[in-house]
Amino acid sequence: MNTTVKIAGTEFKNPVMSASGTFGSGMEYEEFVNLNKLGAVVTKGVSNIPWEGNPTPRVAETYGGMLNAIGLQNPGLDVFCSRDIPFLQKYDTKIIVNVCGKSVSDYIEAVERLSDEPVDMLEINVSCPNVKEGAIAFGQDPKALDNITREIKAHSKKPVIMKLSPNVTDIALMARTAENAGADAISLINTITGMKIDINRRKFVLANKTGGLSGPAIKPIAVRMVYQCAQAVNIPIIGMGGIANAEDAIEFLMAGATAVAVGAMNFVNPYTMTEVIDGIEGFMKKNNISDIHEIIGCVR
Hints:
- The protein has helices at 77-89, 104-114, 142-155, 171-180, 219-232, 246-255, 265-268, 272-286, and strands at 5-7, 10-12, 16-18, 40-42, 59-62, 65-68, 94-99, 121-125, 160-163, 185-188, 192-195, 197-198, 203-204, 210-214, 237-240, 259-262.
- The chain is α/β, with parallel strands linked by helices.
- It has one domain (5-53, 72-191, 215-294): Alpha-Beta Barrel (TIM Barrel), CATH 3.20.20.70.
- The protein has an eight-stranded parallel sheet with strand order 3-16-15-10-9-8-7-4, with helices on one face. A four-stranded antiparallel sheet has the order 5-6-14-11, with no helix packed on it.
- The two termini are 24 Å apart.
């Protein structure tokens, strides 16, 4: 049975990986999850300098999911390169580093630094607010997405995955924009902007007022967007958004994703990713599927 998939020349033993921001760099999950079993670990977002993140409270539970407004808090590249990368190198899994920034120069500085590090790919979080463009996210404006993708490709020695925001009118347009600008792959969806109000306190639950919605509640939207992008581009897609079990993951694969990432459910059940891997293998055995590519993109 073949569960290996390839993205931009990098081979993964299976199509299951962590979604950025929900798994750290795997250290917190080491006693629960056999990292050697994962196709890849996608790290929490890292920036060229440390970010403090947003004020608290910044996480709230919702029906079928959660809202977060962490604000991409991270210790910066110096700490990440000296602490997190050596930790991940101990394991037989691919390393994908999620990169964030507030300006094009921030991103360029980060990808240049990471180009000489022993990591496999870079995932670029374009849901960050572009401070020079009135704080609209890079991934919400086709011109900004085109520009940042071209700049990053010009400076990165690693394959580049552009992580797309679902908070747009036409996700297929954004996917084509990333592909045309040279992206090696795309990943989607990032969180959907949401809000929760405490009716007794008459206040916003999150200090930031809005946050990113993730979890099972967003899965049907995510599957639809992955399918639309799969029809629009020829580069590989990493699908995510509400995956809780193997059936969810297989939906994404059938919609056209080459790989999948598990996010919010890691907080609910730290064994989710390994259970998804086992479940995909079980589905393949049950249905006499010898190669996972038989189901990738099988829905037209």
